[in-house]
Fold this sequence. Notes:
By secondary structure, this protein is of the alpha/beta class. It contains 12 helices and 18 strands. Strands 3, 5, 6, 9, 10, 17 and 18 form a 7-stranded mixed beta sheet that branches. It has a 6-stranded parallel beta sheet with strand order 13-12-11-14-15-16, sandwiched between helices. A 5-stranded antiparallel beta sheet has the order 4-1-2-7-8, with no helix packed on it. Strand 17, helix 12 (344-352) and strand 18 form a beta-alpha-beta unit. The longest helix is centred in the middle third of the chain and has 13 residues, at 169-181. It comes from Nocardioides pocheonensis. InterPro entries: ADH-like_C, ADH-like_N, ADH_Zn_CS, ER, GroES-like_sf, NAD(P)-bd_dom_sf.
Amino acid sequence: MRTTVAVVNEQGGSFSVEEVDLEGPRADEVLVRIVATGLCHTDITMKGFLPPEMFPNVFGHEGAGVVEEVGADVTGIEVGDHVVLSFRSCRTCASCTRGHVGYCESSLLINYMGMRMDGSTTYTRDGAPVFGSFFGQSSLSRHAIAYADNCVVVDRSLDLTRLAPYGCGFQTGAGTVLNVLQPTSADSLVVYGVGAVGLAALAAAQHAGVGTLVAVDPLASRREIAGRYGATGLDPTEATPVLDRVRELTGGGASYAIDTTAIPAVVKQAQQSLAPRGTLVALGLGAEEYPIDAIDLLQNGKVVRSSVEGDADPQEMVPRLIAMNAAGQFDVDDLVTTYPFTEINTAVEEVLAGKVVKPVLVW
């Protein structure tokens, strides 16, 4: 079938809205008509990160839509179901069977390599392959091929334009707090970089009743939004060092910190801002290496780690967050700004400029 996609034709190129051919679903696949797709920094980063030979490529991994066709071997999903798309996992390896689906042994192959396991691509253009299958969906597209393991069926009455970011950004931020850190009212949390992931983390932390919340971001608009979740905003460009202000607000150091910036100097600062035995979770994508203050680490028993998708299983986490949102416990709807799909490059410019938090492209 013919469909419209936002394709990146060369490494570092802009998104180009074009028509391509999409192969119909095989026995283990699901065809989804995309209604909305969240634009994530990973989509923007990967188009400049992947090698030139992996282009043209269709990205997108926060899709939400309506199932139009189901492969013969797929169970639990029916035509007409509304679904939120997330990352893929095999569900059979040792990590998956232990419940750690974000660390699936096949994750690299089924989420990032741009093709099916047999080497075929779901998209072609003039008979030539177009890389896709990004996170098992490539949902910067009018139609996408997905799988039972990354399709989360949701109530048909819910607004898919608000749900699309739950498949990655909101899940990652909230999951890092609720699944990884599990802070209490006696703890403090500092979030460095309060875009969609960081603000979702603060929303979850507010629900968890964390005692002290701090948001570090140079954009006043982002700090203002963080304040709605009970966080004290810090401007890192001010004269007083962030480290001093964090220690003052947290009584000597934070119990926990989350970095979404992927800026090496900020990651080091986040480590140093921790109290003894504190934990930093680095979530940002982009830097190849992070510096560590070894003396601070060794003398204070600190932990520096990361998390894939907030250690979440989307089949459990997405419904959980949707239920929290319905109960007024995860208020993230206002973070979304919608754009017509054809305005994807405008959405990229505005999120990079900090004008919006979470762009969602709609058809």
